[in-house]
Amino acid sequence: MELRHSKSHPHSGAEEPSVEAIREECRAFLEGKLKLTLNMDKTHVTQVNDGFVFLGHRIIRKREKWGTMRVSTTIPKEKVKGFIHKLVKDLSGNHEVRTADMIDRLHRQLAGWATFYKFTGFTAYVIQKIDNVVFWKFAHWLARKYRSRIKPLMRKWLKAPEEGKAKTWLTYGVSEQGHRVDRALRRLITSPKAQFKWRNP
């Protein structure tokens, strides 16, 4: 079975002519009924073993560790690079921002990323890479903000937020109401994952 896709809809088919026929039916419907033009330059027929990017996800059939072939959804490399670039940019300046507010800003981005790619597989390396970048870029951001070396800051703020959890940056400050506010830097590795099961129509 091969998975084929167009720019907006993936299709699966046993033979290429049948998928080509589906594409022509879609084209006739769009142009005839809806008066829309199908962009043939962005409408491709490809083998799922070669993989393709669809709605920000890379879909490809890969061999599992026990030998069977399975369609998997992974994170495109360019999306990983773009996300890391955005995080690094935020942590390369903005030293006037309160530490708690910076952590909240990072949390919103990391939470959004984790939710969007919740159903992807083969992400261990990607998650580890992003966590590592955020950890050390935030360390340098703290050092610049407080005009300190990283080592003393680690002795002060590198702690486990809860018993049994890995250490991370745990900072504290004072809210506008005068209350103490603790902020622990989120790690992507703690984000929940789920499995998406592919089914043929």
Please state the average pLDDT score: 83
Radius of gyration: 23 Å
**What does the largest sheet look like?**
3 strands, antiparallel
The tally of structural domains comes to 2
Low-confidence runs (pLDDT<50, min 5 residues)?
A: 1-8
**Structural class by helix and strand composition:** alpha+beta
Percent helix, as a range, is 25-40%
Count of helical segments? 5
* Beta-strand content estimate: 15-25%
In whole angstroms, how far apart are the ends? 12 Å
Output the helix-strand order.
EEHEEEHHHHEEE
- Indicate the overall shape: elongated
Strand order of the largest sheet: 3-4-5
List how many beta strands DSSP finds.
Answer: 8
How would you explain this protein's 3D organization?
Strand 1 and strand 2 form a beta hairpin. Helix content is 40%, strand content 19%. The chain is an alpha+beta fold and 201 residues long. The strands form 3 sheets. A 3-stranded antiparallel β-sheet has the order 3-4-5, with no helix packed on it. It is built from 5 helices and 8 strands, in the order E-E-H-E-E-E-H-H-H-H-E-E-E. The N and C termini lie close together (12 Å). It has 2 domains: 73 residues, no CATH class; 114 residues, no CATH class.
